[in-house]
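Following up on my earlier message about magnesium ion. Here are the inputs again, as you asked, copied directly from the submission form:
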Amino acid sequence: MTNNPDILRIRPDDYDPDDMPVERARQFIVERLKPVQGTERLPIREALGRVLAHDIVSPMDVPGHANSAMDGYALRHVDLATSGATTLTVIGTAFAGQGFSGSIGPGECVRIMTGAPIPPGADCVVMQENVIAADGQATIGPGHQPGQNIRRAGEDLARGQVALAGGHGLTPADLGLLASLGIADIDVVRRLKVAFFSTGDELVPLGQPLGDGQIHDSNRYSLHGLLSQLGCELIDLGVVRDDPAALETALRDAASRADAVITSGGVSVGEADYTRAVMARLGTVLFWKIAMKPGRPLAYGQIGEAQFFGLPGNPVSVMVTFYQFVREALLRLQGRTPRTLPSFTVRCVTPLKKAPGRTEFQRGILFEQDGEWVVRSTGNQGSGILSSMSEANCFVVLEQDRGRVSAGEWVRVQPFEGVLA
Ligand code: AMP
Ligand code: MG
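Thanks, got it. Here's what our run produced:
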């Protein structure tokens, strides 16, 4: 027992001025990360979502030759009268994949299809809807521009240009772009190995009945989803009891097999002590109380070469701390060029409870109302309300110093990865 009367003072919303601001914790972690080494060569179809190991330099011009953007007639712009119609002789046809073999002289034109090479001599394509064609002749009005409807060689990608930079995460468009360059296989960074487990004597794996006071282990499943979305190689180590020896064995095993180790639970005030003792034997770790809600306690450190993230136990806190700290860290370890989740401001149509002192990541639903995107709260914001994460498609990020929000105020939202697609 203590005689300190401060202990009995109720602090509004658990506010502590010494808590670490979110941004400072994020910066601290980022500074300690080194991308993993090792690449593998993959056919481009297997490389979606993977990280390019090197720059891709375009080996050719794309398109490789000037070609028509329209079905129409290729001609010499100087031949067209500035006022009144001009009639030209049609001397042949150019198809995509089979161009016209001759060249175009004065008073001549060539019927041309979309994608067909521009015949020598031509510098203008007039779309067929603006041409009267009859008896081998094409009659064309005034007002056309030189170069119109012509796709220039190399206008998409020029030979020698960096088409995609190393560190880039490959999208569907990139697979097409690589194909347009004739590139069939590429070097990507190897997958990140991430080991994870849950801690807690109350946790029961799926498939077993719940005893008194027991709950199913849900965190491991949320983490499985989050890590799968990032393309990690998963090492699921199950549930570990609240026992220092078991924890030490699990952490040792995890760190020997993985680039990063993620745990949930066991970092709150009561439990941090033995996690701290175990970590002192295995590596280095810092325990932070972060000025955020939910997700306050967080442990971060290294076990040998592996990065260690000790997330809180509450199911919503796990996901919030993952999105705010772990996601970016894992992307950087994969060699990805840093990319924080996009955020923007919208009007909030429901009032939000908030006390100054911590950054809050409330769960919101972005939706369209009368032609405008707005956000509303999912309701109960307790850190155990996992259904709020299921329902939400974004975080409403309320700044540390901000107080309550009235309906109609502007708030910053951060959509979850992929949910708006
Ligand atoms: P802890 O941080 O270990 O004190 O846990 C905080 C709260 O989260 C407690 O109510 C735990 O029962 C709950 N919790 C911890 N781990 C899990 C898990 N893996 N799945 C679901 N709930 C959990
Ligand atoms: Mg626990």
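One observation from looking it over: The mean pLDDT is 94. Hope that helps, and feel free to reply on this thread.
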